[in-house]
Amino acid sequence: MKICIFTHTFPRFTGDNAAPFMGNLAKALGQLGNKVYVLVPFDQKIDFKSENHYTIITYKYIFPSSFHILGYSRTFKQNRQLTLITYLIAPLMYLFGFAALLRLVKKTGIEVVSAHWMIPSGFIARVVKAISNISYVVTIPGADVYVGSKNRFFKEMVGIASMGADYVISDNEHYINQLNALGFKPKNVGIIRYGVDTKVFIPGKKNSDLLKRLNLYPSDQIILAVGRMELKKGFIYLVRAFDAIIKVNPKTKLVFVGDGYERHMLVREAKNLKLNGKVIFVGAIPYDKLIDYYNIADVFVMPSIQDKEGNTDASPVAMMEAMACGVRVVATRFSGSKEFLNGRTGILVKEKSDREIARATISLLSTKETRAKIQKEVRKMAQKNFSLQIVAKKYVDIFKLC
Fold it and tell me: Would you give the DSSP letter of residue 66?
């Protein structure tokens, strides 16, 4: 099957943190024997290595090259607001993205376009469909539908993209509910999480060199959080919960991996609670180094919330990567599900509740079971729900219905 993955973000180089799950999906689809093309906008940092499972094609939308500043997790200010420069350049990205997709469809005989994000990819795919009659499936990873609720023009684009699609996929039911709340109810809808490479993210021993760099001891119990530091992640509630956790587990440390506009607030909150030395802010790290951090963790916490503007962080890939490494999870209803957090593999808590986060984390840390047994059980759940092979097959099954 000839498939085009059409997206505005994709890992540009080894270790890039720009939507690594997109690279994983492209690879998994190619491993199933499909001919996969990935169409993405040009970026100066692009240094694609040879990849046997898919072909990458870029398009330019402005001159000079240094003006290519959209996509790759940079379009939104604080992941919520569009900047003035975005409004000025975006029309060019839409125009040249449309031309590039139409040209690729006609040249290669693409059978289905897998567009990721309603805006811009889903909308552009709909316009191409009107001309070429190509089938397309659009996937909602998050903020695109949220943006549609804040702007009438974007709302219309979301409606055109979703109602014209052969299938609408989301990695979380919450985003489908957001779409329905805008008044758009596509006939064909499916829930497929992006998944993780369970052959890369595997359980392992705690890296002693990493522990030393972080000033941690082998006897420390480590709570890990990974992600961009923004409101919808709910990390502030984890910091507050940690103040209660260390009163019960004095040898516990909290490690944050990631950066963002909320970091200063988290650092200040930790200082106000006199948690200095017990809360460690690592900052952003290359994607391929994450596994070492997952494997020093005893519990992974993903306290996602719906912020005051209605934006959410549903189905974060980091949580699934942690589980693939055998780490139990504490998560809110936005990031987790009873489907795979059953009390043993992890615990669901209310959003914005530092008390519940603390209680659940203490419960998981107090287990008497061996680390090896825990890792085996959690990883088994991850393989069943998040492995790339299962995810890719679900996508192909939907593509065949188009």
Answer: G
* pLDDT in the model for residue 50: 66
| CA dist., res. 350 & res. 356, Å (int) | 7
Q: Which CATH number fits domain 2-195+387-399: 2.60.120.10, 3.30.565.10, 3.40.50.2000, 3.40.109.10?
A: 3.40.50.2000
Query: Beta partners for 251?
Result: none
> Distance from CA of residue 243 to its chain's centroid?
28
* Residue ranges of domains in the chain: 2-195+387-399, 208-385
Could you say which DSSP state residue 155 is in? H
Q: What is the pLDDT of residues 172-190, one digit of tens each?
A: 888 899 899 999 999 999 9
C-beta of residue 316 within 8 angstroms of C-beta of residue 19: no
Predicted model pTM = 0.91
Mean pLDDT, rounded, of the chain: 92
Asked if the bond preceding 120 is cis, omega within 30° of 0, the reply is yes
Residue type at 154? F
Contact 210, 292 (CB under 8 A): yes
Residue recorded with tokens 């539908």? 145
